[in-house]
From TrEMBL:
<dbReference type="InterPro" id="IPR044722">
    <property type="entry name" value="SecA_SF2_C"/>
</dbReference>
<keyword id="KW-0811">Translocation</keyword>
<feature type="binding site">
    <location>
        <begin position="102"/>
        <end position="106"/>
    </location>
    <ligand>
        <name>ATP</name>
    </ligand>
</feature>
<dbReference type="InterPro" id="IPR036670">
    <property type="entry name" value="SecA_X-link_sf"/>
</dbReference>
<feature type="binding site">
    <location>
        <position position="84"/>
    </location>
    <ligand>
        <name>ATP</name>
    </ligand>
</feature>
<dbReference type="InterPro" id="IPR014018">
    <property type="entry name" value="SecA_motor_DEAD"/>
</dbReference>
<dbReference type="InterPro" id="IPR022490">
    <property type="entry name" value="SecA2"/>
</dbReference>
<dbReference type="InterPro" id="IPR027417">
    <property type="entry name" value="P-loop_NTPase"/>
</dbReference>
<dbReference type="Pfam" id="PF07517">
    <property type="entry name" value="SecA_DEAD"/>
</dbReference>
<feature type="binding site">
    <location>
        <position position="495"/>
    </location>
    <ligand>
        <name>ATP</name>
    </ligand>
</feature>
<dbReference type="InterPro" id="IPR011115">
    <property type="entry name" value="SecA_DEAD"/>
</dbReference>
<dbReference type="Pfam" id="PF01043">
    <property type="entry name" value="SecA_PP_bind"/>
</dbReference>
<dbReference type="Pfam" id="PF21090">
    <property type="entry name" value="P-loop_SecA"/>
</dbReference>
<dbReference type="Pfam" id="PF07516">
    <property type="entry name" value="SecA_SW"/>
</dbReference>
<keyword id="KW-0547">Nucleotide-binding</keyword>
<dbReference type="InterPro" id="IPR011116">
    <property type="entry name" value="SecA_Wing/Scaffold"/>
</dbReference>
<feature type="domain" description="Helicase ATP-binding">
    <location>
        <begin position="86"/>
        <end position="248"/>
    </location>
</feature>
Amino acid sequence: MSPKERRGVMNALKLRRLRRILKKINARADEMSALTDAELSAKTAEFKERLQSGKTLDHILVEAFAAMREADKRILGLFPYDVQVLGGLALHFGYIIEMKTGEGKTLTATLPLYLNALEEKGAILVTTNDYLAKRDAMEMSPVFSFMDLKVGVGVYEEDEEVDAKRKREIYASDITYTTSTALGFDYLADNLAGDKKGKFLRPFHYVIVDEADAVLLDSAQTPLIISGVPRVQSNLYDVCNQFVLTLHEEEEYHFNREDKAVYLTVKGGHYAENYFNIPNLYDSSYFELNRHINLALRAHHLYKKDVDYVVVDNEVKLLDNRTGRILEGTRLQSGIHQAIETKEGVKKTKDSRSVASVTYQSLFNMFPKLSGMTGTGKIAEDELISTYRVSVIVIPTHKPVIRQDFPDQIYVTLPEKLAATLTYVKKLHAKGQPVLLISGTVDIAEIYSRMLLQEGIVHSVLTAKNVAKEALIIKEAGQKGTVTIATSLAGRGTDIKLGEGVAELGGLAVIGTERMPNSRIDWQLRGRAGRQGDPGLSQFFVSLEDELVQQYGGKRATCYFEENNHHQRSDYGQPLRQRRHQRILKQAQAKSEDRSVLARQSTIKFDESLRVQRQKIYALRDELIYDEKNLSQKVDHIVDEVISQYLASNSGLTERSLRRYILDNFSYQFQEASLPVSIDNQVAVKRYLKSLYYSEMSRKAERLQTEEKKSEFLRLSILHAIDACWLEQVDNLQQLKNFVSLRQAAQRSTMTEYYQESLRSYDRMCQAVKETVLRNVMLSTIESDGNTGYSIYFV
C-alpha cells in the first residue's frame, strides 16, 4: 500500500468514527427544535453545571452540538450541514480539517467553539488578518450571545489605544476572535508586564487556527519580535551599499540562488581591503565593516522589490509572499531592513534591539488543545504532525466538485507566456465568463494590467499597493464579464459567488500566471472556482523564465532555455508539450517546498534554545509577580553568591580594585578609611561587604516603613534586573543566529555552535542578573511622592 493509499484509509477510519457521533447528533435535532428560545438558551447554564459536577466535554458533546446547531438555524438562518458537523467534531477532537473553499468553515467553527467555551477557560479562533477576525466575530456573535456566551475581538483600529484592563476583558471572554500576529504580540506584551495590573492573558486552553497551514507553516518561518531601544545608527550602510554596486558576480562575489546564499570570493575580500584601505577584512577589529558588507550583499541579491517588499510613501514595507499583503508593523531585524532602505534610497529607520521574540511553533504548541481549518492541509500533514502533533482529516464536500483543472500551459519565454495568457483571457471575456488572473508578484500583475488596458478590457487590480477595497473587489469577481487581477489570494477569506447567468457560461475561471512556491498555494487558488458545487475552471500558464523554474528547475531546464531563448524558433509562441517539461516543473516546485520545510525546521531548531530560556525567564517573572514570599531571603542568598563569586575570581585583590568594586556595586558614599585591615583576608572582606548590604537594607526598610513596601521594592529590584539582562540576551541570540552560519567555513556544525554559544550566553546572563539585583538594591534611590507613595530610581 502506497503512503497516499494509507493516508486515504486512515482518513476513512477517522470519518467513520465521527459519523457515528454525527448520527447521534442528528437524532437530537427534533428535541432541540421543540425547545423555546429561553429553554435553548438555558442549555448553556445546564451544560456548565454538568461539567462542574464531574462530567467531561465528551459526555455533553452530542447534546451541546445539537443545541448549538439549532441556535445557528434560529439566529443565523443557517443549519450546519452534516459535513460541517463532521468538521466541527474533528476540530473538537484536535484535528486540522481540510475543507474546500466555500464549504462554510466559519459556521463550522461555531460548534466546537461553543462546546469548548463551556469549560470557562476560554476558546480562541485565530484568523489570518484583522478584517476576517472582525467580520467573523460580528457575524457569529449574535448566536453566541443568544446562547449566553460573551465574544471578544482581539484586534483593534490603527489609532486605538488599548490598555491591559481592556485586553483582560477581551481574553476573559468565553470566545475570542483574533489574528495570529495579534495573539503572538499580546503573549509577548503580557510577559513584559511589571505587575499584576499589567497582566491580561489567562492560561491558554483551546484554539482553532483558520488557514492553518498558512499560519502554522508558511508564516512560521519568521518569528514575531518586539523591538525596543534603538541602536546608534551606523554610518557604514551607505559606503557598503556603494561598494557592493561595484562588484561583479563570480569575480568578487558568489550568489547561490538555490541556497539563497551570497558572499565575497577570495578576490572580493582582497578588493574590499583595497577599497576600504584596511589590512585584513576578517580581523576582529573590522567585524562591523564585514557585517555591513554582508548586509548590503543580502539586500541587493536576496530581497527583491515588489516580490519581498514594496516602497510606499518613501517607506520599505515587507510583503507576505503567500498572500501578497503588506505586513504592517513588521520589519527585518539585525540591520537588513536598513540595508534594503539604503539600496532603495529612502530614509533609514532606526535599527532597534529585540526585546522579546516568539515563533508560531512555540506559541501554538503552548495550547493544550490545538486544531485548525484549511483548504489544503493534507499535502502538509507529515510536517504538521512532526511540528505540532496534529493530524489532518479531509472533510468531504457538501456537493461534488465539478471544476475543471486543465494541465499547465508551458512556454519557453516570458513574452510567449504573456501573449498566450492574454489571448486566453480575451477568449473567456468575449463570452462574459468572469476571470480571476493571479500573479505571484506585484510587478507581473501590473504588466498584465497594462496589457489589458491596451486591449480595452476593463478590470480591477488587487495587490499590496491597492487593498482599500479588497473585500468588495473579491466579492464582485464572480459577476458576468468581470476581470480581476490579483496577487496570491490565499487567506483572503472572502468567497467569490457567481453572478446571475455565470454558471451557464462555465463559472469562474481562475488563471494562474506562474506556479507558486508550493503546491498548496496553487490548490488554494484553484479552490476559488467551483465552490459549493458551482462550475468553474483553473488554468496555469508557466514559462521556463519564471523564478521558480530558474531557481529550482536544474541544469536541464536552464540549458533548454538558453538554447531556445530566441524569436527565430519555428515553434515560437507554441506551448511545450513534452512530458519532461511537466516533470521539470513538478520537480522544481517539490524542491522549493523542500527548501521551505528545511527553512522552517531551521527556525524551530534555532528557536529551541531561546524557547527553553524564555520559558524559564517568564516562569520566574510570574513567580515574582504572583508570589512575593521570602524575597528578603532570596535577595540575601543572591548577594552572598555574588560576593563569593567576585572574591573567587579575584584572588589577587588590591585596595584599589576593591574600592572600585564597592563604588560600582555597593555605595557611592563609601569611606576609604572603613576598609578592612587586611585585603588578603577574604573572610573579612566578605563580612565587610555583607555589612554594607545589611546597612543599606536597614536604611531602605526604615524609609519604606512597612514589610509590604519593602517586599515590593525587592520584587521590582529583581524584576528590573531580569528584564534588563533578558533584553540583552534576546538581542544577543538574534545577532548570533545571523552570524553563526559563517562558522560553516571552518567545517563546524551551525546548530552545535549556536547551542553552545547560546548556553554560554545564558550562563553569563544568569550571573549578570544576580549582579544587577545587587546594584539595584544597593544603588537605587527611593523618593517619597507625598500622598501618592514612592518613586524608585535604578541605576
